[in-house]
Amino acid sequence: MSKKKKLTPELRFPDFENDGDWAEKKISELGITINGLTGKSGEDFGTGKSYVTYKQVFDNSIIDYQKCGKVEIDENENQNTLQKGDILYTTSSETPDEVGFASVLVDSPKEDIYLNSFCFALRPFELEKTQPQFSRYLFHSPIYRTSVSAIAQGSTRYNLSKVAFLNLKVPIPNPQEQQKIASCLSSLDEVIAGQTQKLDLLKDHKKGLMQNLFPQEGKKVPKYRFKEFEKDGAWMLKEVDDFIDLFSGIALKGEEICDDESGMPILRGINITEGYIRHSKEIDKYYLGTLEKLKRYFVKENDIVIAMDGSKVGKNVALVGKSDENAILIQRVARIRANKKADFSFIYQFFISDNFRTYVDSVNTSSGIPHISAQQIKNYKVWFPPNIKEQQKIASCLSALDEVITAQTERIEELKHHKSGLMQSLFPKMIE
């Protein structure tokens, strides 16, 4: 049975209960499209004018101008600039559920701001009728996400057709109801932001602890050292490749990947997030073919897995748990195991550290979809104590703090889950 839109939300503020259905408009009726940067090479990025990166659009519902990248723009170049109310969209992702992510300019920029070439913008005809604060929620609502995911094209990587996108229809209430919905959801976002600040403080505490437990610039021993290891001598600065076995996943054909849960689970980059492996009906995929030749790609408990591309490359790192053993490692995911010279928990701390994220940013100079190669991971330099027992002691100390950080992360996820449920009720939905 086909789905259709119900144009009245399940939960409505009393002032608008008698207002009838929301209007339904094609996105092309809301505004005009604006393209991102053209004619740029990697050498143009790093200095110059501000531009909104792909990562900013993917990660945030509103644009923070302080986090923009830099690009050289000549005076005679004909490049589009952004303005208040512009709605920015990603055009490509490794899953249809992450195509068409949106971010809004809710404030007027104080300088010329440009847009990366892997996104485009919708410039509303009238900001009063398509209000920026409302747009940030409309274009993250379930009804929009369902519609835009359905038009994603591809197999291993999905793209968004601008023509198909502009033909999508979205529900729009009157300006007063837009304001009320935006005010409600933004209040909840403020609570989430407050809890996120607490999480950031915990992460800062861990960062400070790591600065004391690991040698800093110009030093070969840490500032603080457990007493039993004070006489063990200097640490070694080496490429992490000396202490690990790294293996990349297999490139399966599109027709070999399916939704049939009777198949063997596939571990994709989209499954890996910050500190854990996530699962849902929308993102989980399976393999039904012959397994004999794929055994070398099965992951084991305590394997470290790293998503090698995407907006959070360098952050999406996790340990494989018992429940994910024997999942098939797919391309663009790295599997890391510690060798006999290293403790896997100690190695894991390196890959979830700010230092690794900084390193990834330094080797990833592309203005497009961020990525890192297997060789670049191997080249990452880290300090190692000569005694594996010292590695284990440090890892145990940091893992205890990780548990507190995980608990706070779960609180934030609960709030986000509540917000998700609220958005399902405040916006019209697809019905059978």
Which CATH class of the domain at 23-172 is shown? Alpha Beta
Helix/strand/pairing category: alpha+beta
Q: How many DSSP-defined strands? A: 26
Query: Can you tell me the CATH topology of the domain at 23-172?
Result: Adenine-n6-DNA-methyltransferase TaqI, Chain A, domain 2
**Assembly type of the shown chains?**
single chain
Q: Helical amount among residues, as a percent range?
A: 25-40%
Distance between the termini: 6 Å
In CATH, the homologous superfamily of the domain at 23-172 goes by the name DNA methylase specificity domains
Any idea what the CATH architecture of the domain at 23-172 is? Alpha-Beta Complex
Q: What is the radius of gyration?
A: 24 Å
How many DSSP helices? 9
Strands in their spatial order, largest beta sheet: 3-10-6-8
Low-confidence stretches: none
- Describe the sheet with the most strands: 4 strands, antiparallel
**Shape, please?**
globular
Q: Overall pLDDT, averaged? A: 93
Our estimate of the beta-strand percent is 15-25%
Protein name: Restriction endonuclease subunit S
Pfam families: Methylase_S
Family: Belongs to the type-I restriction system S methylase family.
Domain Type I restriction modification DNA specificity: 21-201, 235-416
